[in-house]
Design brief:
The chain is mainly alpha-helical. 48% of the residues lie in helices and 11% in strands. It has 7 helices and 3 strands; from the N terminus they run H-E-H-E-H-E-H-H-H-H. It has helices spanning 6-10, 26-37, 54-60, 79-89, 100-114, 119-133, 139-147; strands spanning 15-21, 43-48, 67-70. A 3-stranded mixed sheet has the order 2-1-3. Helix 2 packs parallel to helix 4.
Amino acid sequence: MQYVSPSELINSDGLRIVLVHYMPSPWGQAAKAMMEYKGLSYKAAPWEGGAQNEEIVAWSGANSAPVVAWNKEKPIYRWDDILYLTERLAPKKPLIPAGREDRVLTLGLCHEICGELGLGWNRRLSMFAPALTSGAAPEGFKKMGEKYGFSPE
């Protein structure tokens, strides 16, 4: 993937996304996949893991990635806000079912996987557990554990 600088991304129009650079990020990959499924063109800038990313934080208010922005609208970073934006921009290839019951089931399942304290959230914490409980965790792991509420219990 070709990245532009954070400054270029921030000062651009159109669809833009900030993605974690050099590390796996299921949320970023999901946001990117939604855009690609819908045929949406976008620019991407890197979020440098372990760095301050001050320019992106000042612009978006988010202290992690992905961050998505459309034209002059406020940048967004929650999974459901990103989903609703892609639905609005490319409604002819829906990801959310039209039927009420199917929509409720779909969004409920998505929340259980993607939402705070959901499966993805807790899986991230369980991946950090061996390092964080070893007493020799790198500083970056410690910060991530604190950020996402890790507890050995």
